[in-house]
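Hi C.,

You asked whether I'd gotten around to modeling the 288-residue construct. I have! Everything is below, sequence then structure, no commentary in between.
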Amino acid sequence: MISIVGIGNGASAIAEKFVNFPQYNVYVLNDKVEKSSGKKRKLKRFTSPEDYEENIPDLTKYFSKIDNHVQVFVMGSSYSSNYALGILQQISTKNVDVFYIQPDTTLLTGIPRLMERAACGVLQEYARSGLFSSITIISNKNLEEALQRVPIKKFYDHLNSSIASTVHYLNYFLHNEPEIGVIAPPIDHARIRSIAILETQNIEEKWLFELDMPRQLCYYFCINKEKLETDGGLHKKIVDRLKQKPRNAFRNVSYAIYETEHGKDFGFVVAHTNAIQQQNTLDKLDQG
């Protein structure tokens, strides 16, 4: 089992999508919870980031039965993100993966802008230092572009479902053997990650966050059973395309192919790096 933790209202909305899968225990912490009970914890709301940092709740009892593998979702620019580090420290003995959801930073101003910068930077530093196993950065802006034509009425619900589905598939890959291929284990210090939605026909990536200096690229292909049984040239085609991807002594590529019961093929790419990612858009504006 994997424990899913959502810190704040937006992150909790993502976490609750995992309730549909039996492999997860879902914990949500936010100020919309009416009363703390079970795996739901009400968080206090404050008016300044400093107040959040000074009022980290004691969650010893709340997390007493949490699984050894924990995946924590944090929403950038949310005031509740100021709780994140204090909460993560209380489960630091577990195998913790952080998923940082970045808002469209081009429209952020004032305190939310400063909080987003601080949260993203600090969480990356702590991941690189080994406080938790990894941090995966997902940009809502990039996700919207990758999905295309996301209706306003269900905008965040659509994005949240896509994030949860993607993470679920990555967990599936880690716990199941592929038909062929081997994913290289991540370098110990390359704890900063991003994900791409993979167009399997041309093996083109739609990155949910553009990493600077990726060190490892892991390609996961989900191919329907009929094609796996009948397409004799498929494996060579995939390998030949992957050989064309940029590679060097500091950048390697690995792959694995899985069977899917879905009619349409799909896939994902996970990129790893040890380089702290800067707030590209805002920094460029500042420098201009």
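If it helps when you're writing up: The first strand starts at residue 2 and ends at 7.

Thanks,
B.
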